[in-house]
Amino acid sequence: MKYGFHIYFSILPTFSRNCKMSKSIVLLLLICVVYQSVSGRQKRKGQYLDRGFSNISLKKRVAGKICDSCQVDFAVDAEPDFSYVMTGSGFTPQRFCCGRNDSDPAFGKFRNAKHLISAGLIGITFLPNFLMEKGKRVRYFHSYGGTDYRKLEFSAKQNGKTIQSWIPILELQEDKDYSIDMPSFHAGTFNLHINDTVEVTVRAIETKKIVKTITVIRVEDKATNFVFYELPMESEDFSINLQNILNINSGIPKTEQGRKSNIFEKDYGTIGILRFGELGNDELQYAFEKNSDQWKSIEGLNGENSAYIIFGAELPEGKTQDIYLRYSSQPETVHKITMRVKQRPFQMPWRKVAVISLLLVAVGGLWFYLRDRRSKRKLAALKRKSEDTEARLLLLSGQLNPHFLFNSLNAIQGTFNSRDPERVNAYIGNVAGFMRDVMNNGRKEFISLHEELALETDYLKLEQERMDFSYSIEIAPEIQASMIDFPPLLLQPVLENSIRHAFNRDLASPVIYIRVFNEDNTLYVDIADNGNASWDSAAVHEGHGLSLIRKRMAVYNDKLEMMSIDMQINYKEGTGTMTRFTLQNWLS
After folding, report:
1. Which distant-in-sequence residues (6+ apart) come within 8 Å of 548 by Cβ?
2. Whole-angstrom distance, CA of residue 25 vs CA of residue 236
3. Is this prediction's pTM over 0.70?
4. 3-state SS, one letter per residue, for 274-303
5. If 0-12 CB within 10 Å is exposed, 13-18 middle and 19+ buried, where does residue 71 land?
6. 321, 314, 323: which is closest to 268 by C-alpha?
């Protein structure tokens, strides 16, 4: 069942029934409607007088006979140089007023059009201002201006494609569907789809000078040319507001433009009014289903009057009703709007409100108390975990420093055997400086990748004092080493194993390669040697330094969320050992 929709003429009994208005108010509204009807009809009778349209009489032919009672939709363009009439449409409707505004993004593309129309079937007929007869000008319409139609020709294009080649106007016949009380030349009837363009060009036969260009575009004509009003029935100014809507189209608090919204809301118990602008000879149609055959028509009292759709106050609260709108001149373009009726404000006895409020406050307080306790326990657990992680890292760092010291002392001992005191002194100084950097950085949780590579470079230079090998460090251009955090001394045990276990006396040219690169947010560090011996844990007993690496990585992985460190060691005979550190999500 559809609720509360009335056309303009049913508004009075509906309001009388729902509001129980006094007889005086009903009589006043009835006088307004009758006055509007009479004044509107008077305007309709003379609607063409100011436009110069009264100079011709145009009637429709039905089965070859003139129909005096048939309504004809037409308009005349009467200019000093050229005149014509277009049937089937009254030129650009009032609701297309924005279409001629170049700054309007929705219609600016039509600014070059002579006429914007809604209907799909139109005819264009030329009306001569004068014709030469026996060497004299004979006036037919408007004025003596322009050119003798005997010297003109025209062509027509639809969507840029020629549908009528150049033909003298004098060869044209009268329109068989319409009767005009003067000589006329029918250029043709055109069937336009939406967004189709027809261009009729008139020019002089001898000079080819363009006399007139008529451009007609059929644009999409959505039924959005309305204003939505919400009228409270309990208001003291109800009758005044209703009169203002009917007479001057204003005067109530709430309005919305149909071009700006498809959804409209009204309070329960109020009246919703859709006021459509001037329809001309067109009709507004509405239905409750898009593909319905039950379209209902609404007309204004005349072409210059508004048309109304009323949403009655009896619509149930919470009701949502879809309405489909269209103009009779363009039935294929259907516009959907939705009317929603708000729920009535919920009312509850104060005693129940107080009880429920106190209950909610008690439950809320208990919930906040329990959540606060749980949050404090969680924070304490996280703090203990963080302190435990830092203690484990510090302990591992403390184990790492003696390991470096032991290896450095062995290296110093090796230099004594060289019996070169100056070399020994320089080496001891370098080892001392290196150990100082190791002890300073070893206490930190992170250092920069640049600092880590600098430490490893110092270490490799120390090792070169006692063993002949070369090394290279390659960093990808997009890597900003000084901006990336890195666990200190993570790479040193791997370099130590390559030097002390992979390189033997039979290897001609020992080389170590260090490569740093990334893929997306993951950082990779590859350490490769060309040694001829395997030192990975699967082949030999894992050394103390490598064991410390694995323990430190486990601590970091336990502490860092969404990030991880992994180490993979692979030995290939004839190629050497390649160790890859993968720092997942390290650059995010």
Report:
1. 396, 399, 400, 403, 493
2. 12
3. no
4. EEECCCCCCCEEEECCCCCCCCEEECCCCC
5. exposed
6. 314
pLDDT tens for the chain, 588 residues: list them.
344 443 333 333 333 344 344 334 434 444 444 344 434 333 333 233 233 334 678 899 998 899 988 888 888 888 878 889 999 988 888 777 655 554 555 455 566 677 889 999 999 999 888 777 777 777 777 666 777 888 999 999 999 999 999 999 999 999 999 998 888 999 999 999 999 999 999 999 999 999 999 999 999 998 888 888 887 777 667 777 777 776 665 656 557 788 888 888 888 878 888 888 777 778 889 998 877 778 888 876 555 667 788 877 777 888 888 899 999 889 999 999 998 888 877 666 677 778 888 888 888 888 887 877 776 666 555 555 555 555 554 544 444 455 556 666 666 666 666 666 777 777 778 777 887 887 787 778 888 999 999 989 988 988 887 788 999 999 999 999 999 999 888 898 888 888 888 888 788 899 999 999 999 999 999 999 998 888 765 444 556 677 778 888 888 888 887 889 999 999 888 889 999 999 999 987
Please, which residues bridge with residue 370 across strands? none
Tokens 């007993």, residue? 541
Q: Which long-range contacts (CB under 8 A, 24 or more apart) does 238-247 make?
A: 238/19, 239/21, 239/25, 239/28, 239/29, 242/15, 242/29, 243/28, 243/29, 243/32, 245/273, 245/275, 246/29, 246/32, 246/33, 246/36, 247/32, 247/36
CB contact set of 465 (below 8 Å; sequence gap of 6+): 411, 415, 423, 427, 430
Domain ranges of the chain: 5-43+222-341, 46-218, 400-584
Q: How many CA atoms lie within 13 A of 52 on its CB side?
A: 11
Closest Cα to residue 311, out of 341, 351, 344? Answer: 341
Contact in structure between 239 and 29 (CB atoms under 8 Å)? yes
Q: Could you give the C-alpha distances from 426 to 90, 229, 461, 464, 469, in angstroms and in order?
A: 105, 95, 12, 13, 20
- The amino acid at residue 411 is A
Give the tokens for residue 355: 């009880």
Q: Which residue, among 327, 289, 339, 284, has the nearest Cα to 308 in the 3D structure?
A: 284
Angstrom distance (rounded) from CA 500 to CA 79: 105
Return phi, psi of residue 231, to 5°.
-115, 110
Beta bridge partners of 515: 474, 526
Rg (alpha carbons) of the chain, rounded to whole number: 46
Among all chains, which residue has been given the structure tokens 């460090």?
A: 473
CA distance linking residue 116 with residue 97, whole number of Å: 10
Phi, psi angles (nearest 5°) of residue 25? -65, -45
On whether the CB atoms of residues 414 and 391 are closer than 8 A, the answer is no
Residue with tokens 């009439």: 85
Compute the residue count for the chain: 588
65 beta partners? 62
Is the domain 400-584 a CATH 3.60.10.10 member?
no
